[in-house]
Amino acid sequence: MSPRLPSPERQEAILDAALALFSERGFGETPVPAIAEKAGVGAGTIYRYWESKQDVANAVYRHWKGKLHARLTEALVPLDSAREIFRVMWHVNWNFAEEHPMAVKFLETHHHESYLDDESRAMSEEGLGKIEAVVRRAQERGEMAPGNPRILLAMANGAFVGIRKAGFVGLSDREVAELEERVWAMLAAP
Amino acid sequence: MSPRLPSPERQEAILDAALALFSERGFGETPVPAIAEKAGVGAGTIYRYWESKQDVANAVYRHWKGKLHARLTEALVPLDSAREIFRVMWHVNWNFAEEHPMAVKFLETHHHESYLDDESRAMSEEGLGKIEAVVRRAQERGEMAPGNPRILLAMANGAFVGIRKAGFVGLSDREVAELEERVWAMLAAP
Amino acid sequence: MSPRLPSPERQEAILDAALALFSERGFGETPVPAIAEKAGVGAGTIYRYWESKQDVANAVYRHWKGKLHARLTEALVPLDSAREIFRVMWHVNWNFAEEHPMAVKFLETHHHESYLDDESRAMSEEGLGKIEAVVRRAQERGEMAPGNPRILLAMANGAFVGIRKAGFVGLSDREVAELEERVWAMLAAP
Amino acid sequence: MSPRLPSPERQEAILDAALALFSERGFGETPVPAIAEKAGVGAGTIYRYWESKQDVANAVYRHWKGKLHARLTEALVPLDSAREIFRVMWHVNWNFAEEHPMAVKFLETHHHESYLDDESRAMSEEGLGKIEAVVRRAQERGEMAPGNPRILLAMANGAFVGIRKAGFVGLSDREVAELEERVWAMLAAP
DNA sequence: TATGAATGAGCGTTCATTCAT
DNA sequence: AATGAATGAACGCTCATTCAT
């Protein structure tokens, strides 16, 4: 076989394999032994790190949700106008999706699945809560369209996801910037 | 038990049951016997109409994709300005989603699943092709923003889906109209 | 394969196979597929009748415990002196064990196992309770040795089980009667 | 963790842990890693002393069978009347069972299990052989009831085991002596 | 034609045993 | 010599599909 990987790399190999298979085939369509094989470990090894297949899916979810959150949080430290904030978020999201297309696909398509546990959902909610506050302030300053901030967020995120799901990846900076402008037109105060 | 249903109603009962279960739990998480029970038929009966569970899923997909297409096609017969066309499409989609929330959820979340066959995908493509042509004309007339029409469609549809997935259903006519206006702002020529 | 057995015979075939394997190898050492194979059914079939391997073991236990109880109850209808009662019980037990050696082995060796549920244990207790009352009355009449009736029963049953476990089966009527007399000597008032 | 035990104590710790788990849960229900954990050693260590789980069970069996035999042999050095011999044996057995309840439970319930090897069975047989000779002599002298000595032994041992299995432990000396007398009544020449 | 009990391949998971450390 | 993480065969169980009725 391959030389034994040290434990943290083993864990990561399993999460990577799980991400690839879950995002491509779906949770219910992915056998645990397939994850093990792709990760280059024995099937039993997975159960040394997580208690169940569900737990693996939650670990994948939290791993990538956490990475994305960290990126966004870093980028937003010096917050400026809503326009600037949105531009930054859009590009962070876009670049993250380009770097980790499977992760983003997984995060989006498994968002509401029944095998995600409360902690995973709380993580998602936490991020949304922070951004909601930003939107609310922008609305108060007349920078963004009025209405339920959550709906605005859902629309913007939906537009982003829609583009990616339709297969438009690897666009030029120019094109990405134009799309960002289009989406901002949806969010901006009329 | 119940009086035997004639064949077409039997089929429909099966598709309804499958829709309910697939959209709520997912394809891989739905046993065929569960569909049969919900439909009030024997498990074997399903295999008289379709060859496999996959085929059932494809039948559900095509059934509802067809219904939605028909509605949109009807509504669009007398075509007018792009603004009007979008308004009509938005409301047809919204109303359809309110009437058949499970169907819309299923169409969206199962759009790219591996168990959908080429015919189902072609159906989706066919509808998109028609609308693409409309967008292209609108762009030529300067009514809509320039750029790849498919991306515009993906963004608009993504925004719609995003709103629904986030749980914003049962909104007032007023609210729905406002959302439509926001989305149009994303599509309109600047 | 073999022609399909009707359902009640299938169930019985499974219970028979389970009895044979559990009594010979033990519960933990018997794979479910082995039961299925011996019974001439598919492994999945077992789960149409019982929810788990544990349930099968309990069904086996109750099946045979019930049969033995029925036999004893029948035989004891016209109860007489304690001496007579014991003689009858001894022979019923002995004959039952000769007819169903695996069943008796199973009942004895699995008596206190952790996979038996409360209902099975209650069944065992119920039988003991009835006999205890008989012993108590015999003690009051001075026919049996004094002391905790449960201990007397445990000793008598233990002696019976000891003989069988040591492999002394197929004895002549004469021998069986002599053993009965020996055991009665242990129980009788001195 | 703890200071490394020298090899013989290590072995004993493993046998103790195995005894506790086998007697409580059964052989098939006891994982080797559970034995290792209870013994405070690594799972692999067990395989330095024994080749398999089966071998561990046999070692446990022989360890305790040997201890019991030794005790009985010591006590019986100056042999006397059969009555006296039985009294001594009964009390040695009883005291041994009170001191090592798990060991006695294990010896009894695992007596005929399929994972015991020939050597273990021979050990059991050897002890029985010696006692059989004693019984035979007692029968010749008219002290004990006639008949197959092995059956008499099986009955006496069975009665003993029956009492213990039924949960009657921790009895007073008086009670134990009375039970001994009852059992002797079964064995004595009429 | 419709049924649903039966099937057995394949699932998620466990655990006796191995072996790199 | 001892460890305990890793292994993968084998477990209990599920379920897509078949087929006797």
CATH architecture of the largest domain in chain A: Orthogonal Bundle
Biggest interface in this structure?
Answer: A-B, 42 and 42 residues
Low-confidence stretches of chain A: none
**Quaternary status:** homotetramer
CATH topology of the largest domain in chain A: Tetracycline Repressor, domain 2
Q: What is the gyration radius of chain A calculated from CA atoms?
A: 19 Å
* Helix-residue proportion of chain A: over 70%
Return the string of H and E elements of chain A: HHHHHHHHH
Give the number of helices of chain A.
Answer: 9
What class, by secondary structure content of chain A?
Answer: mainly alpha
Mean pLDDT of chain A: 92
Strand content of chain A: under 5%
Number of strands of chain A: 0
The CATH class label of the largest domain in chain A is Mainly Alpha
Shape of chain A: elongated
How far is it from the N-terminal to the C-terminal residue of chain A, by CA? 62 Å
Annotated CATH homologous superfamily of the largest domain in chain A:
Tetracycline Repressor, domain 2
Domain module count of chain A = 2
The biggest beta sheet of chain A, please?
Answer: none
Please tell me about this protein's structure.
- The structure is a homotetramer of 190-residue chains.
- Helices cover 73% and strands 0% of the residues of chain A.
- With 190 residues, chain A is mainly alpha-helical.
- Chain A has 2 domains: 1-49, Orthogonal Bundle (Arc Repressor Mutant, subunit A); 52-187, Tetracycline Repressor, domain 2, CATH 1.10.357.10.
- In chain A, helix 4 (53-75) crosses helix 5, helix 4 (53-75) packs across helix 6 (101-109) and helix 5 (82-99) crosses helix 9.
- The model of chain A has no long low-confidence stretch (mean pLDDT 92).
- The interface between A and B is large, with 42 and 42 residues.
- Chain A binds a DNA duplex (21 and 21 nucleotides) through helix 2 and helix 3.
